[in-house]
Each structure stands twice: as C-alpha cells, then as structure tokens.
Amino acid sequence: MKIDMHVHTRYSKCSMISIDKLAKLSKKIEIYPTITDHNTIEGALKLKKKLKQTIVGEEITTKEGEILGLFLTEKIDKKLPLNETIDKIHEQGGIVGVPHCFDKVRFRGALGKIPKKVDFVEVCNSRTIFQQFDKKARDFAILNNFPMSAGSDAHFLLEYGRAGVEIEEYSSPRDFLKKLKGGTIFCKRSFLHFHPLSIYSKLIRKTLRI
C-alpha cells in the first residue's frame, strides 16, 4: 500500500484541503494519508471515519521544533519540551517522526538535533526547496539506522500524493515501523508557488473566518 506520510487538512490554518475531497481522491489514486495537522487531530479523526486507512497524526510544535506523532488517540499539547512530547506520544502507543530535517529555510520548524528515541526520520518532503536538506536527512537516517519516511506536506489537493512510502500491510504501530524499514520511498517536488499560497490561504481564512 502507498501512504503519503505528511498531509494537512483545513484543520491546519495554512491548508485548503477538505476532508471529503481528500477521502475521494485517496480512494481514486489508491494513496492513503497520514494526517499531520498542526497541533490537532480533529481533522484526522473525522477523515478516519470516511477512510479507514487514514493514519491519525499530528505535527506538534515543541519548544525545540516540530515533530510528528502518529497513531494517536488524543491530541498532544503544543510548546512542551521535546522529550516530554516524545514520551506523551509513546505513552499513547504512538510513534514519533522528525519532519523536514535540517531544513534551514524552516528555521522555526526544523529540529537542531534529533534525539535517539525518535522512531523514524522524514527523508523526503515535497515542499523542501533545497534537495541537499533531504539528502542530509537521508544520510543521517542511514548512518543511525532509522526507518525513513516521505510525505508531500500537502496544503492543497494538487500536492497530495507527490511523496510517500510503499509498504506491506501492517497490523499495529510497531509492525508499521518494521514494514517502514523495508518500504520504498517515492518523491516528487511541489511547485514553488504553493508556498506563498499557504500564507495567502491563512489570510483568506482569517478574514472570512473559514
């Protein structure tokens, strides 16, 4: 099965992707989403009711940068210390990933240092502008024997499915990690114009309160 492991819905202020349209497109192209909205799992839980293959995740803002929590049942609060956030994800039986590693353009989001107790490393993000950041993440993951993930980081439906992993069917979060280690990465870059559009969408939604 193919999984885009980094996707935002309209429950992230910077995204314009609706739950209904994402469910329909996922079924059509047979790529399934890991929903990683910023500091909420509300959209992920709603999508899972429509699309059972959805992985409920959250892109969590910690004091040290952003991390991904997957297979969550409860929202993790933002702006906690990194290690505390990781522990809270693991307490739920979830797994922890590091998105857009070493991406200096995203200086507010990228971690300066990757803890050993994370479970996987994102080595391809379609929205990473400079490919050397993804290469550095891949080299780091290989050197430290981390499973590797990929995701579109989609904020618009046209971006969805451009990156992800192809893995065998899994039975649990831990089994997912095993299968991820033997998975195949696929990755295409998003068009650069989607970056300013994300900022513009924030302004539109704030103005119209949608």
Strand order of the largest sheet: 7-6-5-4-3-2-1-8-9
N-end to C-end Cα span:
34 Å
Q: For this entry, what is the oligomeric state of its chains? A: single chain
User: From the alpha-carbon coordinates, what is the Rg to the nearest angstrom?
Assistant: 16 Å
What topology does this entry show?
Layout: E1 2-7, H1 19-29, E2 31-35, H2 42-50, E3 55-62, E4 65-70, H3 82-91, E5 95-98, E6 120-125, H4 131-143, E7 148-151, E8 163-166, H5 173-181, E9 184-187, H6 194-208
Parallel strand pairs: 1-2, 2-3, 5-6, 6-7
Antiparallel strand pairs: 1-8, 3-4, 4-5, 8-9
Helix pairs in contact: 1-2
Q: What's the gist of this structure?
A:
By secondary structure, the protein is of the alpha/beta class. The protein has helices at residues 19-29, 42-50, 82-91, 131-143, 173-181, 194-208, and strands at residues 2-7, 31-35, 55-62, 65-70, 95-98, 120-125, 148-151, 163-166, 184-187.
